[in-house]
Amino acid sequence: MTTELRVLDAERWDDWYGKLERAFGGPAESREERALWRELTDCERSLAAWDGDEIAGTAGAFSFRLSVPGGALVPAAGVTMVSVQPTHRRRGVLTSMMRRQLDDVRAAGEPLAVLTASEPAIYGRFGYGQATDQMRLEIDTNRVRLNLPAGTDRVRLRIVAPTAAREECEAVYAQRVAARPGMLARQPGWDRLPLLDPKANRDGAGELLCVLAEVDGEVRGYARYAVRPIWSPATGPDGAVLLRDVEALDPVAYAALWNFLFGLDLTSSVRIRNRPADDPVLHLVSDVRRCGIGLRDGLFVRTVDVGAALEARTYATPVDVVLDVEDAFCPWNAGRWRLAGDAKGATCARTGDSADLALSARELGAAYLGGFSLSALAAAGRVTELRPGALAEASAAFGSDVKPWLPHGF
Ligand SMILES: CC(=O)SCCNC(=O)CCNC(=O)[C@H](O)C(C)(C)COP(=O)(O)OP(=O)(O)OC[C@H]1O[C@@H](n2cnc3c(N)ncnc32)[C@H](O)[C@@H]1OP(=O)(O)O
Q1: Is 62 considered catalytic here?
Q2: Which of 215, 301, 370, 407 is most buried by its number of CB atoms within 10 A?
Q3: Which domains does the chain have, with CATH numbers?
Q4: Active-site positions, per UniProt (predicted)?
Q5: What is the 3-state secondary structure (H, E, C) of the chain?
């Protein structure tokens, strides 16, 4: 079997997307969601693997700008919509699409490619490393109390329709992006993603609502949520607050939003699928054991251009190290790079000097946003220290005070 890779003809989008849905066992999406993905698809960056006149594989890319340590927004290809038909699996179709895509990303001058994986085992072989994680919470609000900071009572809360509050929420979100590595600057149309609320997907919950937190007349935060009413025959109300997202620009607005969610009548839990693992709410609660905490992988990062990627971020402490990078899938990155930088900026260029640390592209991706330390990777045998002291120096420099985190999938 041979397949031929071609850029997606926009007129074939329905067929192409239908094949993607089939590979995912779908379609499970609502009409609204499908229409949004149609609008957001960049056909010129989408590939179809053709077997004769049949689509055997799909892969796409969004043109994102990713927040990195130091607050810069770095061009990053957002790899998405990857699938291979069940009739064509395990014959190298994915590998051929990854090959073509990374060549295209390099040609476009984007230093990074990023993705969220259906299964985390797939993408390491192509040099993607898990760079962030995400925390889910299912908080027992009957048992857990909140310790509110002084001034929380100054916050005024207002419930509004999410669409009516879109601009205010987006203004808050935009300010959060540079403050947390791993977040994506909003591209046109992406503000509609958190507003999707098709009836068919509510699973017993009411409509999506938005609560705005205002301090001195200014919107300082928001939460979008729905309530799923649950009535137990024996004890009565046992509803769940399904929190979609929550962002705030100061501690009192943040605490007030959580206090509101905890206090919703006839509910006994607040559930959310995706929060950063250093969410301040963990320092507001009286009992973390009853917060139903779970962790899973988030964003995967691939350094497509090692020099440009390492120069695009800043470093928590001064660093001057030579990295010996192994990169079989993108061999233009392989070899020694001298990275010199600090909190103001960095240079990263080819060098003939002897190496201080050896690692592969996958580890570089994992450490890139500062979420996973080089020391931890070294302890797992995935980074090798060649000059004593270099690991501690580089590990501290790569670290991020704020945990990197991606708020939504793509
Ligand atoms: C960013 C995103 O869009 S994530 C979504 C990914 N898509 C899905 O999960 C949809 C369902 N799955 C599929 O469509 C396919 O099985 C794919 C895309 C995951 C794999 O496609 P294939 O064409 O079968 O992959 P390909 O034959 O190129 O395999 C390359 C290697 O990856 C391995 N591999 C492929 N899929 C998986 C997997 N799910 N888990 C672990 N390893 C895998 C193969 O075993 C092979 O390993 P090898 O090089 O050591 O022999």
Answers
A1: no
A2: 301
A3: 4-131 (3.40.630.30), 135-296 (3.40.630.30), 306-398 (3.30.1050.10)
A4: 123 (proton donor), 410 (proton acceptor)
A5: CCCEEEECCHHHHHHHHHHHHHHCCCCCCCHHHHHHHHHHCCHHHCEEEEECCEEEEEEEEEEEEEECCCCCEEEEEEEEEEEECCCCCCCCHHHHHHHHHHHHHHHCCCCEEEECCCCCCCCHHHCCEECCEEEEEEEECCCCCECCCCCHHHCEEEEECCCCCHHHHHHHHHHHHCCCCCCECCCCCHHHHHHCCCHHHCCCCCCCEEEEEEECCEEEEEEEEEEECCEECCCEECEEEEEEEEEECCHHHHHHHHHHHHCCCCEEEEEEEEECCCCHHHHCECCHHHHCCEEEECCEEEECCHHHHHHHCCCCCCEEEEEEEECCCCHHHCEEEEEEECCCCEEEEECCCCCCEEEEHHHHHHHHCCCCCHHHHHHCCCEEECCCCHHHHHHHHHCCCCCCCCCCCC
